[in-house]
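Thread title: Can someone regenerate the structure for this chain?

I was given the following input by a collaborator and told the matching structure tokens would be attached. They weren't. Posting the sequence so someone can regenerate them.
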Amino acid sequence: MTLLDRFRTQGRHKHPDPAVRLAYVEEIPLAERDVIASIAREDEDARVRRAAIAKLMDPAALAAIVRGERDDALRGQAAAMLRDIAVEAFEGVTEADSLEAVDALSDVRLLAQIAKTAGREIVALRALSRVADTHVLGSIARHAASDATRRGAFQRIGGDAEAILAVAMNSEHKDTAVAAVDLITDPAALEQVALRAKNKSAVKRARGILRETDLRAAETAAAAQAASAGASMETATSAPPASAAPAPSGPSLEELAAEQARAAAEEAERRRAREEAARHREQAAEQARARAAEEATRLSERAHLRLTELADAAAEAAADPDLAAARGRFAITRREWADLSAGVAVDASLASRFAEAEARIVAREADARAADARARREALARLHHLFARAESLAATPSLSLKAADRALRDVRTALAAVPLLPSRQDADDATRRLKALQTTLTPKVQELREADGWRRWANVAVQEQLCAKIEALSALDDAEAIAREVRAIQRQWREAADVPSAQAEPLWRRFKTAHDAVWARVEAQFAAEAGARAGNLARKTALCEKAESLSGSTSWIETAEELKRLQAEWRTIGPVSRGREKAVWDRFRAACDRFFTRRHEDLATRKTVWAENFAKKEALSTRAEALAESTDWEPAAAEVRRLQAEWKTVGPVKKSRSEAIWQRFRQACDRFFARYAHRHDIARAERVAAREGICAELEALGSPERADPPADLLAQVRGLRVRLQQEVAARGVDPGRARSLDARFTAALGAVIARWPPLFSDTDLDTGANRKRMEALVGRMEDLAASVAGPAAAAAGEAALSPTVRLAAMLKEALAANTIGGKVDDDSRWRAATEDVRQAQESWSRIGLVPDEIRRPLTDRFQRATRRIVDAAGRAGGSGKTAGAGSSGRPGGAGR
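Best answer:
Regenerated them for you:
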């Protein structure tokens, strides 16, 4: 149980005040998962459940909340807690907890975050296995911290060209970026990667592919050009001469012979031309093959030279004594080797040299890993040996200062630099056990050191007595008695051998000198010292009595100084009478021990009280900090004042911590009361923000960018009007600002209605129907005003009225006079007119939205007519009064 648990009353988790339950949740230790989970599921207040969820470290309980919680915010908070557990954002999270948290999540966005940032690779892979969206997989392939996670995500992308291009362009990791480039076949996409990709290796690979493509295209074009030239030559030589013409009929023999000779010559010429064309074609093809062979040879030679250099560089990297530097150098060499050797016949000796260097690097890494694992196991074994030895010593009742001090020193040394261990769990366990041993051994060592110091200080007095005793033996004459006393003194000296180093050598020299000279001093000197010993005894007895009188004092500082002075004086007094030394010393030491024991117990009690008071003040400070940003002004102010009053009742704390905790509490209170002084401004800003939000929502509904209206447009518009009316009823907004917001809301509402008028037909937002209702009411009131203005006006008004309206007016007057066909008395007539005005005003107030340019003149006419009727009724002494006859009549308006 923690210190705060001692002050916690029973049943606070069932208290009717949510603030009390919230404070209880803040005090619950994280280890009490069942209690926290119960509150997170069952408490009726959302704030209390939110606080419980923030402390809940149980993945199963959080998963149940995600599945069953109705509040979206709390459900999202529980999901965020599962994500944080999965990525080990808290101390003490195990691998099983992380995996369970991943299994409980279904939000693809959170799973992607876990796959990218999880510290444990198995957790990242588990999160990846639950993601199926191609775009999310591409994001994981680009940004995941784990190599295996990136590769797995990239393999699951499949043939999505857009996702592959995104990986090649934006991945910061070479492996996935280069693999994506190798899958791209579109030259335009390769050009884009070569120009703007983030990863330099991807840029280099894309440029290499483009160069190879250009080279193959050039070779193909050269071969095609050579073939085209040969075909042209052959066509030219095989075509008949343009000057050939059919011979005239009936040639002579000479002409036939000449013709045959010319034909033979032309055939020979054509044969020579074909042979020449074939020779030229063969020469062109041979030249093209030679150029291609020369280019291939040149490229092969350059690749061979570079591969030779890379093989040498790989061998040098493998021979580097620094394994980390060797690994980095070889990784660079291996990437270039892979780029150059792709599609090129590599010399077997070079490949063998490179493979040998790679094998050496792999072997060195394996040896390094094995050595590291072995070193970690050995370090863990040494720590377990230290744990066994130190825990055994800590449990030993008769623990010596030397052994305890050595064990504590070893524990502190190990804790200051905890070595690398086989697993994180081993490191956490080792740290925890080392801290526990340090906490256990420190007070024991301090206690033993104080006891050893006291014993050494006490031995100083004992050795002084022994020195005095052996010095006194110089007065003895009896050699046997002297020898007997010397042996007794030597035995006592060995028992009191440990003294402070400053006094050890002087006391030993004194003892040695007295021991050497004692045989020359006998009875006379001993007798002379007897009186002095008696005087010393009397002085020490007086010191004992004074120490005993001070042993019950509670003036700790003054009494401690006085006892130290008595101890110093005790050391100045010589030996006492034989046989009385131990008794008087025990008496004096018992008195001193009694006081210092009481002082130590009082100090321990005060430390406990200080710690309890500090815990109370820390709880008050935490509560004040929680209230510092509250907007529940009056209850929060009352609570802060109550905390201030309670602070005054808490006792003192340790001086070194008093000022810090006080500053923390005062700053929290000052921060709240500074906000409390400006609470009206804050509330006003919130109300303005609320109205602006309503206007923005309505403007979004009527936005020109929206093609189709929402399915529930009318309900949304009505809901926004209700919300605005509620905000207006709350008031607290400057009139100018309120008018501008009303105008903005009215303009936005008009835009929505104008955008989709059929949706508002036959509703209170149908502006056309509302205008007709207003015009009808205005006509009624103007007719009624004309009828009550006087006979002439009444006659004119009645002439203007339709028969139906006149009949309705007569029926009203008859009913008002409680007779039909009888004369209507004036009082009844005015009451009827006043009632008509009241009903018209009620009908006017219920009319919905009307555009301002139409509403304003109709409102003015309506007000003038009703005012004329009311004024006429007042002049006639009528009893009817119309409350709100001067109403502005703003149908559909938002108000303030």
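Residues 33 and 56 are 6 Å apart (CA to CA).
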